[in-house]
Amino acid sequence: MHPLSPQRRQIIYSDSGAGALKQAAMLRGERLKGLVPYGPMQEAFIGPIDLIAHPFERQIWREANDADTSIWRGLDAESRHEADRAVASWWADLRTNKRPTTIWHCSRDVGDVSFLVALLNEIEFEEDTLLIDVADIVSGKGHVTSTGGCRPESILSAADSAVHLDEAKRDKLRKEFARFAASPKGLRLFDTNGVVQEAPIDAHDATILNFISDDWRPYIRVMSDVVKHQIDRDIRDLDYGVLLWRVDKLIEAGVIERRGRSREPLFVENPMMGDLRRVA
């Protein structure tokens, strides 16, 4: 049975990655029936690893640690609660509905790494389970750093590298779960050696500040520089919403200041309007 067969359940962390899977299946002349994207999920690399599969407890942690980035996903309190209910239902179905499964992930994406580790700790998948890592696909000058960055043709090529989820791989992922769970610090990121590590909730602030000077710089230019910094490293551990959240926290802390912010409600205009500079 082909890894992308409609007879298999397809699990993938991102909605954009799910779209690529659907198109890839259509190139094979089939339509996916068992696609299970994890779209309602908030950033899997934020918060304790053992709360990823428990969304309501995870939300309590986020509120207690000033780590609620829901505003940058356009969610009010009611919408956030509905999203958490959808996530809880997703996990409940996965725990009870056993079937042949293909799990797609990217080991260069810290969200995918966090999700996969939590998934394999939480769910006892049956023997006919395949893992596909798209990290070795080359796109442009570098490697793909997320499943959402894959073209449908690349998805089909990656399917040829599917491996069975054997006991050795299960054990390795469980050990990773134990490593993360032993000393949770707020989020996970890639260190300079490309290894995922626990880090304080403000660990990305230093990277952001590298691109903010004493003189005014356009906010969107700062964003572009941070994103390019990630691309140059061939990894993904800081996304759009988290960057906006951390910039706001740095402003609240009096470390940087901003001028030219939009006075319109969030998302009506570009949330990166205006300029940033360090506070003298």
Please give a handful of descriptors for the protein shown.
single chain, 280 residues, alpha/beta, five-stranded mixed sheet, three-stranded antiparallel sheet, 12 strands, 40% helix
Tally of helical runs = 9
Which structural category do the helix and sheet elements fall into?
alpha/beta
Could you state the order of secondary-structure elements as H and E? EHEHHEHEEEHEHEEHEHHEE
| Percent range of helical residues | 40-55%
Q: What is the oligomeric state here? A: single chain
Main sheet characteristics? 5 strands, mixed
Strand content bin: 15-25%
Q: Would you tell me the overall average pLDDT?
A: 90
Q: Unreliable stretches, pLDDT < 50, 5 or more residues? A: none
**Principal-axis shape:** globular
With strands numbered from the N-terminus, the spatial order across the biggest sheet is 2-1-3-4-7
Distance between the termini: 63 Å
The total of beta strands comes to 12
Computed Rg: 19 Å
